[in-house]
Design goal:
3-stranded antiparallel sheet; 10 strands; DNA-binding; 4-stranded antiparallel sheet; homodimer; Jelly Rolls
Amino acid sequence: MGQPATALDSPCTTCSVRELGVCSTVLSRPVSPAASAAPAPRQQHRGARARQTFYRANDAMDGASLLCRGWGFAFSILPDGRRQILSFLLPGDFISTVGVLKERVGVSVQALTDVRYCAYDRTDLINCIRTDSKVFDKFSELCNAERDEANEMVADLGRRTADQRVARLILSLMTRLSVRKQVRDNAFEFPLRQQHIADATGVTPVHVSRVFTAFRNAGLIEIKGRFLKVLNLPELRRISNAR
Amino acid sequence: MGQPATALDSPCTTCSVRELGVCSTVLSRPVSPAASAAPAPRQQHRGARARQTFYRANDAMDGASLLCRGWGFAFSILPDGRRQILSFLLPGDFISTVGVLKERVGVSVQALTDVRYCAYDRTDLINCIRTDSKVFDKFSELCNAERDEANEMVADLGRRTADQRVARLILSLMTRLSVRKQVRDNAFEFPLRQQHIADATGVTPVHVSRVFTAFRNAGLIEIKGRFLKVLNLPELRRISNAR
DNA sequence: CGGAGTTTTGATTAGCGTCAAACACTGTGG
DNA sequence: CCACAGTGTTTGACGCTAATCAAAACTCCG
């Protein structure tokens, strides 16, 4: 509900340039020759404070958004009020890929840290996707990747133990951050509360604490400040696939 | 591995006409005037016997397929061999919507009953999607629906009890069949074995049996032959959302 | 230093898995 | 028509995973 601070509304110099990975680069600068007909979609930067829910399920989204800075997560709320986190969003991620195509989506999005995101004009964006075959391909690829992740998540929740799910979440975040060059020495920023992990892996916060304690005692991970360090990567990998 | 019987290879008169719902109609006959430039994608009908796995994870798919007749399911196999069913496929469903765009997908597809499906040429189909805005919209809509279902499934597996998941699966199938006019008097074809339900809901077959027994004893459902009848719809709905 | 949010720990219990055996259903060949 | 095999379902006994409840400890910030 609260308005983002003015500092967060200022232009974002990093967005659409390099750091966000391929998708934003492709979108902001049409790369194929045939694309000159389609101008880059109009964009507008916005910010949100940590803990702020900046998209609500079934609210009209005025545009398709790309996360520029900070972490977020997409979630849905069950009728009884419990929360299921569907995905964590890292810089460069679209806030729901298929949401690009649709005004109203059934998920909400909350900022985990202070974030900045870039809202593209939907019409422009769809136009761009349809006109530029490179963008079309890129976009299909993103849809596929998102679907693959959703399938992975279904398999995890349906078939794996709490230990495995937590291990896989850690590894999955590490891999994604690694692509973004944000892992050094097996350590990376980790702004998640145990409640978030619980809501993503389908267990209770209490049990997440026990799993973490077990992992720590086994010398697998170390958490200091808002950083997580993997101390025994092979073993964590083994656990994540075990059984 | 076995070749489908010749009867299954004969032309499918129902496909692409009416019964499959909007998607095939749109795809087989471009509806918007602007679409005359894009011919309907080439298509080829094929069949598979019940239990046959007719697409294997990461095999090259020669085309994007639409299920014409019979039931199937998409699944993935965990490293330890266990199976997670990702979705049940009913006549008119695309076999993985995003798979339309990609040659190799990470899921396998098996026939639940004898099936007939229609393989569209991928290049033609993508062309059609890009050229005809109605098809593009329809396709986006299908992607969105598929993503919504995946999200629902994540929430179910992460947050609901076995009773709820089974109830929701039954209701979800009933709703989808209802749209296809294949529900009469709250009863519908039900070719699933309890093993399938177990693999879809993330429980064991033994427990599925217990849930079914409980539902039967409570006068909620009745299973005869390969048909399922819902006897107390409001109560089944209540259970599916309870807690 | 106070207070809210978060994590840890312990005790108990519910839900579901595992194992094993019995039972039912269907189609096959004699 | 029956025997039999193969597949699928039901039932019981028991054990383990993770939920629940409750309290204490710890952290972060004002």
